[in-house]
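Hi V.,

Quick status before I head out on leave. The structure for the redesign project is tokenized and pasted below; the design run finished overnight.
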């Protein structure tokens, strides 16, 4: 597995935050020079469900979470340096037991 990026250069950062679940999940969008978009975010302790329009890759930068993809019976634990992919038009349940889970979400074609 390749190392997660520690910074992004030559990007446009969107100042307005994406706020979900009463502020327990917060992210900011960045627009890359090639036209792609990522979000950088924080997930505070709790359980949350997200639906996807496009396919996504969620890379865990720090902390830990447990994820169950829509349609799956199994949950998988992820920690810093790991990632999971979510199909388009699908979703996932994510749970953070303690601390803060930091992530990079990439929108895939």
């Amino acid at each position: 597995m390749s190392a997660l990026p520690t910074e992004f250069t030559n990007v446009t950062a969107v100042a307005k935050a994406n706020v979900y679940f009463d502020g327990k999940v917060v992210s900011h969008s960045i627009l890359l020079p090639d036209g792609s978009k990522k979000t950088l975010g924080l997930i505070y302790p709790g359980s949350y469900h997200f639906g996807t329009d496009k396919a996504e890759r969620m890379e865990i930068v720090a902390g830990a979470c447990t994820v169950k993809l829509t349609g799956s019976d199994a949950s998988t634990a992820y920690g810093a340096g790991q990632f999971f992919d979510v199909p388009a038009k699908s979703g996932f349940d994510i749970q953070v037991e303690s601390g803060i889970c930091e992530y990079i979400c990439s929108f895939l074609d």
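Above is the designed sequence. The mean pLDDT is 94.

G. will cover questions while I'm gone.

Best,
W.
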